[in-house]
């Protein structure tokens, strides 16, 4: 194969392996953005500015970050990330993760927000056994469900596309398939920090047991084609 053809193929592959950047405001990558000390990870915005987020008692794997349900936690100052996740507005959150169990309430990633009024709510992803599925914000209005809890135990991609109408204006996808909405019940009060693998209200609780491969936050709705593009990259990188 000639050098020109090789370079052309490499360029095509590189483009195929690049996530959608338009509207990307924060991201975490378990493969490349956690330093060797396993204490600080790097969040970046579209301009390349890096934000520090404190991680404690996590384990760095080859392509993910493992959390336990005893003392693992992660926080980001609300002054950095609060506006990105707060309130009712169009946004998209994409997360590749795996739960180790479905026995307990667990926060995967959640903005700093309250339950009422709606303007004080925040976006994110957490699991509630009583609701038989995942919830996508601090408010009790948001409760997508999955057919069986077993479908949560494997590594998977979750995309939440939020609208700007009200708290129920959202769609959750698992590996590109829309999840049905369940009964709205249960809420999450997380007023102080944007949290990873836990929530914080006077003390840390609802700790996550599992692994997080990546988190991406966009300040707009991604199209079907854009979400599929990102999903295929995640499938190749994180093997699910």
Major sheet description = 8 strands, antiparallel
Unreliably modeled segments: 5-15, 33-43
Distance between the termini: 32 Å
Strand elements, count: 17
Share of helix among residues? 10-25%
CATH first level: Mainly Beta
Number of domains: 1
CATH topology: Jelly Rolls
Q: Average pLDDT across residues?
A: 83
> What structural class do the secondary elements suggest?
alpha+beta
**SSE order, as H and E?**
HEEEEEEHEEEEEEEEEEEH
Identify the CATH architecture.
Sandwich
Using only C-alpha atoms, the radius of gyration works out to 17 Å
What is the general shape?
globular
User: Given the structure, what is the number of helices?
Assistant: 3
Strand content: 35-45%
Describe the protein's topology.
Blueprint: H1 3-16, E1 24-29, E2 40-44, E3 50-56, E4 59-60, E5 65-67, E6 73-76, H2 78-85, E7 91-99, E8 106-110, E9 123-128, E10 133-137, E11 156-162, E12 170-174, E13 177-178, E14 194-196, E15 199-201, E16 203-205, E17 210-218, H3 224-238
Antiparallel strand pairs: 1-17, 2-3, 3-6, 4-5, 5-17, 6-14, 7-11, 7-17, 8-9, 8-14, 9-10, 11-12, 12-13, 15-16
Give an overview in words.
The longest helix has 15 residues, at 224-238. The model is unreliable at 5-15 and 33-43 (pLDDT under 50). This protein has helices at residues 3-16, 78-85, 224-238; strands at residues 24-29, 40-44, 50-56, 59-60, 65-67, 73-76, 91-99, 106-110, 123-128, 133-137, 156-162, 170-174, 177-178, 194-196, 199-201, 203-205, 210-218. The chain is of the alpha+beta class. The two termini are 32 Å apart. Strands 1, 4, 5, 7, 11, 12, 13 and 17 form an eight-stranded antiparallel sheet that branches. Strands 2-3-6-14-8-9-10 form a seven-stranded antiparallel sheet. It has a single domain (21-238), classed as Jelly Rolls (Sandwich), CATH 2.60.120. A hairpin with a 1-residue loop joins strand 15 (199-201) and strand 16.
């Amino acid at each position: 194969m000639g050098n020109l053809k090789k370079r052309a193929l490499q360029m095509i592959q590189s483009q195929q392996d690049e996530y959608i950047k338009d509207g990307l405001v924060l991201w975490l990558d378990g493969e490349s953005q956690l330093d060797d000390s396993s204490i600080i990870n790097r969040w970046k915005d579209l301009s390349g500015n890096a934000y520090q987020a404190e991680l404690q008692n996590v384990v760095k794997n080859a392509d993910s970050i493992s959390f336990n349900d005893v003392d693992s936690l992660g926080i980001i100052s609300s002054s950095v990330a609060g506006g990105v996740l707060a309130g009712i507005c169009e946004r998209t959150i994409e997360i590749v993760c795996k739960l180790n169990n479905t026995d307990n309430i667990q926060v995967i990633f959640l903005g700093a927000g309250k339950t009422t009024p709606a303007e004080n709510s925040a976006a994110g992803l957490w699991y509630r056994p009583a609701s038989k599925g995942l919830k996508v914000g601090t408010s009790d209005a948001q409760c997508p469900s999955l057919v069986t809890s077993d479908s949560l135990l494997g590594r998977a991609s979750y995309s939440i596309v939020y609208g700007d109408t009200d708290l129920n204006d959202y769609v959750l996808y698992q590996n590109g398939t829309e999840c049905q909405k369940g009964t709205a019940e249960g809420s999450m009060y997380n007023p102080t920090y944007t949290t990873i693998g836990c929530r914080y209200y006077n003390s840390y609780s609802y700790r996550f047991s599992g692994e997080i491969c990546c988190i991406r936050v966009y300040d707009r709705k991604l199209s079907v084609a854009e979400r599929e593009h990102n999903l295929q990259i995640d499938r190749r990188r994180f093997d699910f």
